[in-house]
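Problem 12. The chain below contains 573 residues. Write out its predicted structure in token notation.
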Amino acid sequence: MSASFPFSTSVSPLQSHEFPRMPSLLKPRIHLPVLKPMTIALSRVVLPENLKVAASELPKTVAEPAEFREAEGLEVDSVTEAELKENGFRSTRRTKIVCTIGPRTCDFEAIEALAVGGMNVARVNMCHGTQEWHRDVIRRVRRLNEEKGFAVAVMMDTEGSEIHMDDLNGAESAKAEDGEIWTFTVRAFDPSSRPERTITVNYDGFAEDVKVGDELLVDGGMVRFVVTEKIGPDVICHCTDPGLLLPRANLTFWRNGSLVQERNAMLPTISSKDWLDIDFGIAEGVDFIAVSFVRTAEVIKTLKSYIRARSPKSQISVIAKIESIESLNNLEEIIQASDGAMVARGDLGAQIPLEQVPSVQQEVVQLCRELNKPVIVASQLLESMIEYPIPTRAEVADVSEAVRQQADALMLSSESAMGQYPDKALAVLRSVSLRIERWRREEKHYDTTDLPVVSSSFPASISEEICNTASKMANKLEADAIFVYTKTGRIASLLSRNRPDCPIFAFTPTTSIQRCLNLQWGLIPFRLDFSDDMESNLNRTFSLLRAKGMINSGDLIIVVSDVLQSVQAIKVP
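Solution.
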């Protein structure tokens, strides 16, 4: 690391009244005609003879489902298009952003504002709201993509079977003050007959399992109670650490300094409600399903088999949420079985000592990258911005560390779902990500760690070798971008895994894969129909991108495809 850090003398966007704004060139997607092909010069790097295989041995690609719409031109997220036109390749943000949609951001205009601000994935949390409410949100996101030229993916997060509070009779929150007496019970009440300071718990065995003297933690310690008395189904508690109680908040209880988890281990990972929600997600065509409180890889395998059986053509990816001691004990097997992982630090911090959370986060991020799985860092990134317009400096440092670790994505939870300043919270993530990414490039912090082989077959290992070579070439030659033509998305994912210095333009013929790639680090996904004739593809792509003002003559491009055994270095004519 250099001894000096190039600080800017201008006012930080985090300190100004105006947060950084995305380019304003937002307009409906334009399908451009194919222009006259240009002559291009190819510099080909051919793989060694021992890595060549017959065409029949190459990885099979999936056929495009009939429901995917055809396009004669090039489709790309309109905000990304505007950024590239105004600032060039190096301006693009590599770290992706997931925003939870809630009461504050559920209408069409609010979702559009988040998309303009840089949201790549919209998350719906099935812990809150009804299926009808979430259906409206999902369809607004799809409408936004269709009408305004975005490629925002949708992630559905299951509730899970952990112990949690009820919905507080529809209230946004309740305040527990120091010394107050609250009752936690398994009894259900009509809204009009609920006693004051009484909360219903979803687990029938709660009163039997809790003992007098146990500590009851809400949301991992945001509010803390001590059990003072048990009366039938009611657990009487004394508030020792005051705070805000949120609907359906997670509950854990501790005895003699240790987490009581025996009963939690008996609850199913996927509850009956979760299965109904999963059916709903499949029917609505969500792009990702995030599974809460995963304990073993078998749960992930069962769910993926279920999705294949219910919707054979579905491209839904399964994300494992790492938020329990059991998930850490089976971490590698869970990530191997999943399509990605989320470090859910809030619930995780309720089950392990707080001082272990940072090292666990880094371990999960690194393991996901080694296994070629996208990873999301989530929970309490900008918690103070639920109420305040700027973050704490400690929160900025926390976000910076996740970007420095090169996590694929950062996630806003309550900050965007119910916070007072969702757009500003999103602007902070975007601003900090851009700054730290630029700093890494300026300081030449290339990751020289040799990543382990993840291929399961010889043809797949060829794709992996091609991507490793392409990424090294791009860094050494200081290429402006990598172009990758992919029908399955895998080769684009392998390029992302290498974290090259330049952005990766991923061209794919299917809309669902375009959206799924929007979660992965450094990928700029385009929807483009292409053939197996690479020279024709390049002619056409250059024509379309030049017409949109997104590339310039002289730009150095590294080209990769999942149907070729070569890496090409090309200068745009």
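Discussion. The radius of gyration is 25 Å. Students who got a different answer should revisit the alignment rule from Section 12.3.
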